[in-house]
Amino acid sequence: MAETVLACTDLRKTYDDLVAVDDVSFTIGAGETYGLLGPNGAGKTTTISMVAGLLEKDGGTAVVAGNEITTRSTSAKAAIGLVPQDLAIYPDLTARENLRFFGKLYGIGDGLNARVDEVLDVIELSDRADDQTKEYSGGMKRRLNIGLGLLHRPELLILDEPTVGVDPQSRNAILENVERLGDEGMAVLYTTHYMEEAERLCDRIGIIDEGRIIAEGTRRELVSLVGGRDRIHVETSGDTSSVVASVTALDDVESCSSAGSVLEVVAVNASRALPEVVLAVTRAGLDVQSVDVSEPDLETVFLHLTGKALRE
Amino acid sequence: MRNAITIAAKDLKERLRDRSAIILAVVVPLGLAFIMNLTLGPITEQAFSTGVAVSDDDGGAVAQGFTSVLEEIEEDGFIDVTVAESEADARIRVADDDVSTAYLVPEGFSDAVSGNQPASIVVVGNPDQPIGAQVGKAIADGYVSEVNAVRLSVATAIALGADDLAGLASAATLQSSPVTLGAGETEGRGFDFSTFYATGIAVFFLFFTVQFGVLSIIEERESGTMPRLLIAPISKQSILAGKLGASFVMGVVSTAVLWLATTLVMGADWGASLGVVILIVAGVAAAMGLTAAVATIATTAEQAASITAFIVVVFGVLGGTFFPVTRVSGVFEVVSRVTPHFWLMDGFKRLSAGEGVVDILPALGAILAFAVVLGTIGLVRAKDLMRT
After folding, report:
1. Chain B nearest C-alpha distance from A312 (Å)
2. Chain B interface residues facing chain A, Cβ-Cβ under 8 Å?
3. Model's pTM, two decimal places?
4. Chain segment B262-313, per-residue pLDDT in tens
5. What whole-number distance in Å separates Cα of residue A241 and Cα of residue A262?
6. Same domain, B106 and B239
7. Structural domain boundaries, residue B265
8. What is the value of ipTM here, to two decimals?
């Protein structure tokens, strides 16, 4: 495993009788994108607020790049970049001025101008860099919000629901940016209640509900936790009963059934089984007219684990 | 320190772009000072002068003496004397509002006075110019009193056996003018109109100007930028110092601009520069303390601004920034002294009157006491403001 950048151990936060975060533990390695997936109010923002040193912990530790983070930490926080859920930019300043201001606070010296230009390029705001940000669209502001978080090349970047309220085009641009960060070796903690984002971006996902991480792992590991299998639905030109036995015998196929010209396959891994299934059908002299693959997703997992939908 | 300067510079740049701070800190107070100076200044500050008419139907020595007295007063600029052609002409001038007072000296007046017989000067006052009419009557009263005194003295001298009547008459004419008027400052103000309003308005608006820096702590929280500041590798003290630094610069610069502008354009006399600078700095410190203390009890920037506005207006009135409070007494007198505004105005009044830095030390001490007490409350509770 890559070097551990963030190690959270038994994080706990209570408000009177309400346990907002209940002994949450997880780690993130360098270059890894870790998703905290859960519905609103599950404890995601409280968790990252403690990780970032914005909120006093009632218990547990959060160690970033070897330093424990508390609300009193100063220099240790330099390892963290934060992209808050709410826009955290100054509307009367330009994007360049926003970046330069925070760059100075992070002690970026001689290379500040170059780094600002680089970030502006990454977030695709170079051509509007000297406009006051109050003139920006919502998507542009969101991109700058992210740019401010990664300006000082933090070892850990925390993104708190960065796509909430963003149009599809800007959302896609944000997700592409986050994908690139993981590739560049940055550890990313990404909170979301959008299952699709967690599946697309995250190497590992912690499913959080009512302040507790109730399941953790890769997407596949999480799906397998609930016995989920992929389904392949194949429509052919003739009777499929003759291919049931040969398809069932394939390595990644768990079961197969025929319903006239339709073949229903339950596979352990659809992406590996699909070519073999198609080959078996064509060898039987049938033409494949359509194929539909459906995989169990994290929504299914969350529903299975909690009995409620992610967006409830 | 470097981080505090960075934050202060950012805040100032935002305020300059926003323009609201400039408007409130410089444009509005300067505009008000100019307007008050233009509209109220001539009424309040111009030297008093009123027109009088005199109808001398007598032409004798005593009547001419009265006219001479009037001409002497006219030379001092307090009255403008018109010699009427007749009693009717003098009355018409009053009726036409040309003059405030008409003096009607009847034929035989001088002889009556010389003969120790009853004599009178008729004073016709203009009811539309009551102050001028009062002054006109006072001049006549003064003259008559003096004539009576001289007449009494001469009669007494004769009764005691004096026989040099010509010498007595000569000595009487050598007496000084029986009525004199002198220019004096309006009681209770202590400095001229332009300076009073220049300093009063500067003190009043200073407390609004300074609040911007302190309130920006709450605004950072409301706008969502506070978490980004708090996660930066800087101390909370740096953030606080930056915010207070921006307040300080705003307060000092805006008041200094008002000082310069009112001096150059309105002719205000703020007094010795060193003392003015010391008072401005002390005033800014007191204003920062007040707004910081208020900010800690408010939950939103809007609420803090409202509370500050209320306090500043009340303190401004009590402290004498709108009108002089040096003549008030009782509870009002005591209450006015528990406002920093009162002591700032007291300090500026002394400086304007030509007093030095030593003379403003009591005022300075009171202002700094406000700064320390309120500032301590603000600083102790300020950390609570810096949260997400």
Report:
1. 26
2. 2-3, 6-7, 10, 13-14, 17-18, 223-225, 227-235, 388
3. 0.69
4. 888 878 888 888 999 999 999 999 988 888 888 777 778 788 888 888 888 8
5. 9
6. no
7. 2-43+190-384
8. 0.77
